[in-house]
Amino acid sequence: MESQLEMVALLLMWLASLVSGQGAKTFDWHAAYDYPSSTPFPDSMKCWTCVDGADDNYNCNRWAPDVWCPEGTRYCHTVHHMNEVGQSIKVWKKCAAVDECSGSNVGCSNTDIPGVKKCVSCCEGHICNYDVPTNETNAVFERQTASSASYLRSTELLLVTAALFIVLRIL
Question: Which residues contact 108 (CB under 8 A, 6 or more apart)?
């Protein structure tokens, strides 16, 4: 019985890492994705936030305050400065209105500092700005479509259902 419980615990840890897609440095995704029963206003959301800047993405997300975005902001905005080999120099993240995320405001460009590149991205959705943009492929304005949101929810639901089925079979 004890070995079965250990197997269940390992299975649940594996499932949690699969759903969150976490790397070596972990965050409390469960707490981040919890939606409280009451929100400050309809369709309110949160973004990873470090308006004063952080040395890298990990420290930005690690110390991000858990606050609701102001009304009128629907997007998460990320600015990433990096050196020639792609190492982070500074990261800024915040809630943003659509005008901060329009066409010419996203993408990658050189800065006034030699060897320093700046990439800017925006995304729509609750704490969607976990990662930082590093090139033209991911320095984009990513809007959430109804189909992509429902696909993500259905995929997570399928994984949880499969894990529960396996746990019940083990017990």
Answer: 117, 118, 119, 120, 133, 135, 136, 139
- Which sign does the torsion angle of CA 24, 66, 48, 144 carry? positive
Query: Which DSSP letter does residue 43 get?
Result: T
What residue type is assigned to position 27 of the chain? F
Q: At what angle do helices 2-20 and 146-170 cross, to 10 degrees?
A: 170
Nearest residue to 33 (alpha-carbon basis) of 49, 18, 20: 20
Collapse the DSSP code of 163 into the 3-class scheme (helix H, G, I; strand E, B; otherwise coil) and give the result: helix
pLDDT tens-digit series, residues 125-158: 999 999 999 999 999 999 876 544 545 555 666 6
**Straight-line distance from the first to the last Cα atom of the chain, in angstroms, rounded to the nearest whole number:** 8
The answer to whether the CB of 58 falls within 8 A of the CB of 51 is no
- DSSP label at residue 140: S
3-state secondary structure of 36: coil
Amino acid at residue number 110: N
Q: Is the pTM of this model over 0.70?
A: no
Rounded Cα gap, residues 108 and 93, in angstroms: 16
Mean pLDDT across 38-54: 89
Helix, strand, or coil here: 131?
coil
> How long is the chain?
171
